[in-house]
Amino acid sequence: TSTGAGSPPAFEAAGGGTLGTECSTASGSTDCEFTSIASGTKQITIIFDAVSCSITSSLRVTIGDSGGYETSGYVYLTQLLDANNIASDIMYGAVTLSLMDSTNNQWGVTGNWKLNATKMGNLGGTKSLSAELDRVKVEIGGGDDWDGGSINIVSFT
């Protein structure tokens, strides 16, 4: 906010985020769902801590609204540097969803992660929903299941 001509601006303290309930990606689990995301949320960061799977599968982030998860219409690109996936990869990193246009419920996504000592990946894209976002799901594809780690979210209004 302005404090007058010639004076430096004054900044309000940033509001804290709301931490979700950590989801274990222990053996036998295949997805983590974060539901009841607060109305007015403008940003969500998904945090991956030592997530691994039992075979070579891909993770998928799906967003949704009161009508359920949206299964199509995602525009994105994922890049894995050193694309030789092996089951022993352990993922650390974050994917951030940011509200781009509240009229169209359009969300942008960006993410970066590390897989072991020699691999990294990144992601970028967009997706519009039919209503306000209230849920996020992270799942593993290909009939695989996780065998370690955890996932959580922090959301900001």
Which terms summarize this structure?
0% helix; globular; 54% strand; four-stranded antiparallel β-sheet; 157 residues; eight-stranded antiparallel β-sheet; mainly beta
Description:
The protein is built from no helices and 12 strands. It has 157 residues and is mainly β. Helices cover 0% and strands 54% of the residues. The strands form 2 sheets. Strands 1, 2, 4, 7, 8, 9, 10 and 12 form an 8-stranded antiparallel beta sheet that branches. It has a 4-stranded antiparallel beta sheet with strand order 3-11-5-6, with no helix packed on it. The mean pLDDT is 85. The chain is globular, with a radius of gyration of 18 Å.
What is the 3D shape? globular
Content of β-strand? over 45%
Instruction: Return the average pLDDT rounded to an integer.
Output: 85
Low-confidence stretches: none
Compute the separation of the termini in Å: 19 Å
Number of helices: 0
Radius of gyration: 18 Å
Secondary structural class: mainly beta
Helix content: under 10%
**Tally of extended strands?**
12
Biggest sheet descriptor: 8 strands, antiparallel
Q: What's the SSE pattern?
A: EEEEEEEEEEEE
